[in-house]
């Protein structure tokens, strides 16, 4: 398949890129500062430009989401707005604007995360964003069929434990290779409206 | 208890108001166009003014949330922004700004809805908003203890079936009196970080 991968140069995006390419897909990479196409999708008008530049694709895969992490007492209204634009609206727009542009039976795979269901200190804006995306995916799926939309909702990556493990005490990490398989499941499988927890 | 009730003049707010007053609570009502205090909490600066005007309270109860309902193909980026400001940021700000102002063991009870977990056509912005609030509640709870925060997530009200029943085919409605009891459970009980499904 021809796949548009947003956030391709990040920790997760790199793993997803390797896995999808290894399965024979033709992947076009998108990032703010790296990749075949350079776009910041937090701005809806840039999503339109991205689709115009990308041409026809079969699947859109997002591994990109920016959310501020701070104690609730330090988060501001603007931080919540930034989390909304950086992880929710950006991914909503990939779907909303993509429906008329991708293949008739194409798919969207968005990224959320464990904070949608498990709380950690400093995670309330991220939780808000993840919960928003997961419920959006369930709702959008019934309207866009036969196109499909799913989310992948991993916990902390095994490879990121040295950096972020202290925020997830006692929570089993997941290998990036396993998370990448959840993206494969969404892209190549037949399910829609699902939140895959790898 | 002294309770601040936002959205007091709506269908749900009226039922919650009656129930809380009937249990002996002193309820101050808030609305955009009706109530003891007139504020539109979609604007964070108005939340601060509301708290200044309200004085000390033991519990904050929200029955207010504005979200556009349209087919996904007709929703715009601005509609999703409106849903975010009208139901997510408004309620997040009640909590965020309220922590330093309400009683030391006070509580917040927010409103979400069935669309967080069950899709209906025209409901993708509402789903986004409800999912955001529910995950925020779980996350914020661990940071604000011994203050508490919960959400009430009802399906369509029995009393609203004549108006909205067609959007919820085969989904059992719930009486407003039962929904109001979920607010009582949150306000008078001891749980936190919960999503009560009445």
What distinguishing features does this structure have?
seven-stranded parallel sheet, 42% helix, 6 helices, globular, homodimer, Rossmann fold, alpha/beta, 198 residues, 7 strands
Protein architecture, described:
- Two copies of one chain form a homodimer.
- Chain A has 198 residues and is an alpha/beta fold.
- In chain A, 42% of the residues lie in helices and 15% in strands.
- Chain A has a single domain (2-196), classed as 3-Layer(aba) Sandwich (Rossmann fold).
- In chain A, strands 3-2-1-4-5-6-7 form a seven-stranded parallel sheet, sandwiched between helices.
- Chain A is globular.
- The model of chain A has no long low-confidence stretch (mean pLDDT 97).
- At the A-B interface, helix 3 and helix 4 of A face helix 3 and helix 4 of B.
Tell me briefly what this model is:
The structure is a homodimer of 198-residue chains. Chain A has 6 helices and 7 strands.
Number of helical segments with 4 or more residues of chain A? 6
Query: For the record, what CATH class of chain A applies?
Result: Alpha Beta
CATH fold-level assignment of chain A: Rossmann fold
Query: Main sheet of chain A?
Result: 7 strands, parallel
Order of H and E elements of chain A: EHEEHEHEHEHHE
What assembly state would you assign to the polypeptide chains in this entry?
Answer: homodimer
Write the CATH homologous superfamily of chain A.
Answer: NAD(P)-binding Rossmann-like Domain
- Number of individual domains of chain A: 1
- Tell me the number of strands of chain A: 7
What's the rounded overall pLDDT mean of chain A? 97
CATH architecture term of chain A: 3-Layer(aba) Sandwich
Structural class of chain A: alpha/beta
Question: Percent range for helical residues of chain A?
Answer: 40-55%
Which pair of chains has the greatest number of interface residues, and how are they split between the two chains? A-B, 44 and 44 residues
Low-confidence stretches of chain A: none
Query: Separation of termini of chain A?
Result: 22 Å
């Amino acid at each position: 398949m021809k796949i548009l991968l947003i956030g391709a140069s990040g920790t997760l995006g790199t793993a997803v890129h390797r896995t999808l390419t290894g399965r024979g897909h033709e992947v076009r990479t998108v990032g703010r500062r790296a990749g075949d196409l350079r776009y910041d999708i937090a701005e809806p008008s840039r999503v339109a430009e991205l689709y115009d530049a990308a041409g026809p694709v079969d699947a859109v895969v997002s591994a990109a989401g920016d959310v501020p992490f701070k104690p609730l007492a330090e988060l501001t209204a603007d931080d919540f707005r930034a989390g909304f634009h950086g992880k929710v609206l950006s991914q909503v727009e990939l779907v909303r604007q993509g429906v008329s542009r991708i293949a008739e039976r194409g798919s969207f795979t968005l990224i959320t995360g464990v904070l949608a269901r498990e709380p950690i200190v400093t995670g309330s804006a991220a939780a808000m964003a993840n919960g928003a995306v997961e419920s959006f995916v369930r709702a959008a799926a019934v309207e866009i069929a036969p196109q499909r939309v799913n989310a992948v909702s991993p916990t902390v990556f095994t490879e990121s434990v040295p950096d972020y493990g202290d925020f997830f005490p006692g929570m089993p990490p997941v290998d990036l290779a396993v998370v990448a398989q959840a993206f494969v499941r969404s892209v190549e499988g037949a399910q829609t409206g699902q939140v895959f927890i790898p």
